Amino acid sequence: MHLPENHWYVVLSSAELRRKPVGAERFGRRMVFWRDAGNVAHAHEDRCPHLGAALSAGKVEDGRLVCPFHGFAFDGGGACRHIPANGCAGKIPKGMALTSFVLREAYGFIWLWHGQARDSYPELPYFPELLEEGWRCRTDIVDWPVHYTRAIENQLDVAHLAFVHGAAMGQAGRSFVDGPWVEADDHGIRIWSSNARDTGQPKRSQAALREAAQGQPPRIRFLFPGTWILHIAPSIRNVVAFVPIDDKHTRYYLRFYHRVRLPVVAQLFELALGWSNRHILAQDRRVVVTQTPANSLDAADDRFIEADRAIVAFRRRLAALLAGDAPDQPGR
Predict the structure, then answer these.
(1) Do 56 and 68 meet the contact criterion of CB atoms below 8 Å apart?
(2) pTM of the complete model
(3) Does the pLDDT at position 180 exceed 60?
(4) Does the keyword Iron-sulfur apply (predicted)?
């Protein structure tokens, strides 16, 4: 699968990885994730180098990943530490090691470094405002049968709301897009936009939109390679981590952040808004699965309008990353 390298990608939520190994396809390859005795997460190719059994069907024992076929035991670095058939004092053949991946765990996610190993790594691409005290969140997991580019662009599209969502987002009849004003750089994409009923009003100039955006938080932010946030209200945010599974499937880790403190009220609030988010995403899905070609970077026949500025910025930046013409993943 062709993805920008030297970036951190969300691959799992922390809650998904407990005591047992977890097998998952990511970036078009089968991986196994597990925790050692110190609760540190590790990831390898989900294949024992002995005879190819899936390690995700094995277990974790004494802080090591154990193959279900012949009991080979591997440490977090992928080194084989024990072959039962050879005995405790037996030699371990050279090359009997696992392909390993660099992981970090933060913000309730497990992140995988897709690129060359290095002595130090850039910061994880997340949103500083959500690190403040008082935020609570609910996480929903949704899988779509679409390429990750189409999934991401759908959340950067400010012109579809009245037609795909209508009353579900309070956008019924609000088809006029004033702008958007879009800023794009190595840190990602920021979008200021508003939708209104079409009364024949003129669009504001880009200079006027830029001036109006000064000092105001963007409604939408996207950080490469795949984290997105929607500013709904001062104490409400939606966050999506887009996870490329393969060329035809993308996983959404959909989060609803809020600051409701009372536990019972917070839980009810999360249930209601979680349902609403899944409903809205299902409305998007019905349309996005029909888009062709699957990978938006192959869509040479697409014709853009002014409201597509963020989509255009995304395609340009992604094309540069894939071509190796852009610097490594930035910080926040």
Answers:
(1) no
(2) 0.93
(3) yes
(4) yes
State the maximum Cα–Cα separation within the chain, in Å, rounded to a whole number.
83
Surface-to-core class of residue 183, CB atoms within 10 Å of its CB (0-12 exposed, 13-18 middle, 19+ buried):
middle
Bond preceding residue 125 cis, omega within 30 of 0: no
**Pick from 113, 137, 133: nearest CA to 124:** 113
* Residue 295 structure tokens: 């990978």
Domains of the chain, earliest start first: 7-114 (2.102.10.10), 128-323 (3.90.380.10)
For residue 34, what are the CA distances in angstroms to 8, 53, 115?
18, 16, 21
Spatial separation of the C-alpha atoms in residues 308 and 31, rounded to whole Å: 36
DSSP string of 164-187?
Answer: IIGGGGT-TT--EEEEEEEEEETT
Q: Does residue 328 register a pLDDT over 70?
A: no
φ, ψ of residue 208 in degrees (nearest 5):
-70, -40
Q: Which amino acid is at 267?
A: Q
Closest CA to 239 of 136, 170, 95: 136
Instruction: Give me the sign of the Cα torsion angle 284, 287, 289, 293.
Output: negative
Supply the pLDDT for residue 326: 56
The CB density around residue 234, as the number of other CB atoms within 10 Å, is 8
Kindly report, residue by residue over 227-263, the tens digit of the pLDDT: 999 999 999 999 999 999 999 999 999 999 999 989 8
Rounded Cα–Cα distance for residues 60 and 66 (Å): 6
Contact status, residue 109 vs residue 247, Cβ threshold 8 Å = no
- Side by side, the strands of the sheet bearing 22-26 are 22-26, 29-35, 41-45, 100-101
The β-bridge relationship of strands 73-74 and 64-66 is: antiparallel
- CA distance linking residue 182 with residue 210, whole number of Å: 9
Mean pLDDT of 4-8: 95
**Rounded-to-integer distance, Cα 12 and Cα 129, Å:** 22
